[in-house]
Design a protein that fits this description.
Length: 288
């Protein structure tokens, strides 16, 4: 992503969720009634918005078969993990690379029980806040929007300066981020969480195998997506071998609770739809 533009993938993911919200309740993988406001401007300004949404989704499914449904399943999986965390009494929610995440709007219990910290690149966050102000008329003191350049600024400084408390049980959401950052940045983020969140705190994230990031994968949709992302300046950099995820997380002070491969989340969320094997989801707890 260039520094002067908001995240294109974040806008596209919002479009995808908006399209899913148009489906009948019995057919939805997930439901985000607010996603429509955060779609790309070319769609928002279109006179035939619904047709443009349908055309775009069909085009994506042609070029990247299964990817859209995997992204929707990811949203649903994280929603489920959030509901579990709320039942377990979390007091803080940290969304790393929040993009156009709307969970603070969709889950009333978050605003009532926890402080929410949304961190993202200043340009993307600026667009999000403008849309919230213009369309959602939303103002909640429990939500802290924190602009950050993850490549240049320290997560610890940003969070602590905005009221983060390392004694409180916390859920960290890291959705659609790990494969865009370096191995060093991944380790630095996990190290912060392990050192500054109490035992029992939870992290939820998705990841790709290394072959997807380096282009050696045999999955045609993964190769096509990698090239498409590269063209818009959102290059893939990092991956984890699925059979190494438990050891990878344990070495960094976490215990994996769930590691979902495509067959797992297809069975759980979208039995009648195709998915891509490139996406894997993890839920882990701080275990020090």
């Amino acid at each position: 992503m260039r520094g002067d533009q908001s995240s294109i993938t974040a806008e596209n993911n919002a479009l995808l969720r908006a399209h899913e919200a148009m489906r009948h309740e019995s057919e939805r993988i997930c439901y985000d009634p607010y996603a429509v406001y955060f779609m790309p401007d070319r769609i928002l300004s279109s006179a035939d918005r619904t047709d443009q949404i349908e055309i775009t989704i069909a085009d994506w499914e042609t070029h990247f078969p299964g990817v859209c449904n995997s992204i929707l399943a990811r949203t649903r999986f994280i929603d489920d993990c959030l509901e579990e965390a709320l039942q377990d009494g979390i007091q803080q929610l940290v969304i790393l690379g929040s993009g156009y995440d709307t969970r603070a709007f969709r889950f009333r219990a978050i605003r009532e029980r926890a402080t929410v910290f949304e961190l993202d690149h200043p340009t993307t966050q600026k667009r999000k806040l403008a849309i919230i102000q213009n369309h959602l008329d939303w103002n909640a003191s429990s939500i802290r929007h924190i602009p950050i350049d993850f490549a240049k600024e320290e997560l610890s400084e940003k969070l602590f300066s905005c009221g983060y408390k390392d004694r409180l049980k916390t859920l960290f959401i890291w959705e659609g981020i790990t494969y865009y950052i370096s191995a060093f940045a991944v380790d630095r983020t996990l190290d912060f969480i392990n050192r500054h969140a109490p035992s029992g705190s939870v992290i939820v994230f998705d990841y790709f195998p290394p072959a997807v990031a380096d282009g050696t994968t045999r999955l045609p949709e993964a190769r096509a997506l990698r090239e498409g992302l590269k063209r818009i300046g959102e290059e893939l950099l990092f991956g984890i071998e699925p059979d190494q995820i438990f050891a990878f997380m344990e070495k960094r002070g976490f215990q994996v609770v769930r590691n979902l491969a495509s067959r797992d989340y297809q069975q759980a969320y979208c039995k009648r739809r195709n998915v891509s094997d490139m996406f894997l989801f993890v839920q882990a707890t701080v275990s020090r």
